[in-house]
Amino acid sequence: MKLPAQVTVVEVGPRDGLQNEPFFLETGLKAELINCLIEAGFKRIEATSFVRPEWIPQLRDAEEVLKLVGRPPGVRLSALVPNLKGYQRAVSSGIAEINMVVSASELHNRKNVNRSIEESLRDFARIAGAARGDGILVRGSVAVSFGCPYQGGVDPGKVIGLASALWDMGCCEVVLADTIGCANPVQVYRVVSAVLEKIPGICLAAHFHDTRGMGLANVLAALQAGVAVFDSSIGGLGGCPYAPGAPGNIATEDLVNMLAAMDVETGIDLTRVIKCADRLQRKGEKRLR
Amino acid sequence: MKLPAQVTVVEVGPRDGLQNEPFFLETGLKAELINCLIEAGFKRIEATSFVRPEWIPQLRDAEEVLKLVGRPPGVRLSALVPNLKGYQRAVSSGIAEINMVVSASELHNRKNVNRSIEESLRDFARIAGAARGDGILVRGSVAVSFGCPYQGGVDPGKVIGLASALWDMGCCEVVLADTIGCANPVQVYRVVSAVLEKIPGICLAAHFHDTRGMGLANVLAALQAGVAVFDSSIGGLGGCPYAPGAPGNIATEDLVNMLAAMDVETGIDLTRVIKCADRLQRKGEKRLR
Question: Which residue from A72, A157, A176, B177 lies 20 to 30 Å from B39 (Cα-Cα)?
Fold first, then answer.
């Protein structure tokens, strides 16, 4: 079983996690969470989102959060950016990296951002150009890469096309995201292998949910296919709006634990991660009461 | 990614699951559960246990349960048998298969059955001999094959030795069990590969728990190493006495769902399995109130 010796875990709880939780975590607590994660050894954290506050009220305090977090050398904080306006806010906040998301299903892209895939890509190309000038890294995510809640199956050719477009416009990394948690390991292995084969040199990351207990099995398949960057969410924060009661992103502590058990280096202190998760759970529970 | 085209799922919820739950499921409901599982397509079900009722009061009704369940042709019900006395009860009940468990850690075997490994094996050889005469199949399980709550790591050489002893005494199948849910996929792949290499022709099964979300990842690794028989427990029944709050056996519905998604044939009707699990959950919750 051939696995990479080293893996980068990108913590997405503060953004993808919290935006799907039914409570608002106070700005100070968000910053505290991010600082705890930095102390636990994360070098890459998706910290917040520059979408319109009316859309995602949970993250309405993006600027304030970023003012409160430490940014030690070597730590790369990123933020989701849906459009040029969001990009301008991101620039002003001094963020090191932005994340742009386009869906591999036309219908999902329309429901998600009220635009066609083509319109998204046109906007993203302009943002990527601007980011190059501003010295900001761009991460491109392909949502619903393994299945869509509206159209069902997704053509791997579509995923390859979008990954290619994002890579060509200058993204430093392309993320294949199983947005609704419907991927299976064989599919993951096939799609990842196809993308790596068709787009030589592409830096690929994978983003899984744990909807039916398959999250870590999908990680294992992606590792075997050659992925060495994974998103995960502290405490399994986040859910899936299309699967009530289902778990959200794969839990960071589960991912880090599995990688450590398999002697794959992550540079992350599992004990500290678990402390972060425990603390966060208590805060979250308090807010839900 | 090379996987077997077909996998046998052995449902162990009625035994390994229920014995670790804090409630007693009435005899009639146990039989109903087993009958539902048969209708869902399971050909092999670990139905109960012939241990002393004082030890496992949850399964004190072994004989009564077996009187109430259907035994259509092609369906193989089995029962755990700890010793010769249990074997006699099993014979009288007309069971088709027995399961004998020995631990790969001396300390765990003592804590579990109050005997040394050697004493267990001696007893098992006699039982296996009797079973051959009685036309009863014998399944041999190696508990704590991937780690022990008392001694920690377990030498794969010990696992190979026990698997070999069980196979040689006439077991039709040997189960490598991750009794406390501490295995990781790389370890699973290595240990399974080593056992298959050292004991040519052995029929191997695997039994995983989902303690830290790694259950299905371990299944994937075992599949890749060549295992095509897996234990699982309806609704994820069962727990781990050494990990409070942790999930139990891998949930049958998760396993069947993953296998179906990967086009691995199981012959099991997932919709019926989920109905079984839902019904059982309601019964269990009622009993816990």
Answer: B177
Give CA–CA dist B276/B261, Å, rounded: 20
Report which of B111, B67, B102 is spatially closest to residue B177, judged by C-alpha positions: B102
Question: What would the mean pLDDT of B108-137 be, rounded to a whole number?
Answer: 96
Taking the Cβ of residue A1 and every Cβ of chain B, the question of whether any pair is shorter than 8 Å is answered with yes
- Fold (CATH) for B13-288: TIM Barrel (3.20.20)
CB B29 within 8 A of CB B61: no
Enter the DSSP assignment of A209. B
Tell me which of B2, B223, B258 to substitute to probe the interface with A (most A C-beta atoms closer than 10 Å). Answer: B258
Whether chain B has a CB inside 8 Å of the CB on A221: the answer is: yes
Tell me if A186 and B3 make a contact (CB, 8 A cut-off): yes
The reply to whether residue B187 touches residue A213, judged by beta carbons under 8 angstroms, is: no
Q: Is the pLDDT of residue B240 over 80?
A: no
Sign of the alpha-carbon torsion through A207, A210, A212, A213: positive
Q: What is the pLDDT of residue A281?
A: 83
- Which residue in chain A is spatially nearest to B220 when comparing CA positions? A217
> Counting beta carbons within 10 angstroms of the beta carbon of residue B249, is it exposed (0 to 12), middle (13 to 18) or buried (19 or more)?
buried
Question: Rounded CA gap, B205 and B11, in Å?
Answer: 12
pLDDT under 70: residue ranges of chain A: 240-246, 288-289
Chain B CB within 8 Å of residue A262 CB: yes
Mean pLDDT of B75-91: 97
Q: Which residue has the tokens 């990954």?
A: A163
Distance of CA A103 to the CA centre of its chain: 13
Q: How far apart are CA A5 and CA B180, in angstroms?
A: 27
pLDDT digits 0-9 by tens, B44-82: 999 999 999 998 999 999 999 999 998 899 999 999 999
CATH architecture type of domain A8-288: Alpha-Beta Barrel (3.20)
C-alpha B210/C-alpha B253 separation (Å) is 13
Q: How many Å apart are CA B276 and CA A280, to the nearest integer?
A: 35
Among A277-286, B68-77, B113-122, B245-254, which is the least confidently predicted range?
A: A277-286
Instruction: Give the model confidence (pLDDT) of B208-217 as tens digits.
Output: 999 899 999 9
Residue B242 has pLDDT above 70, yes or no: no
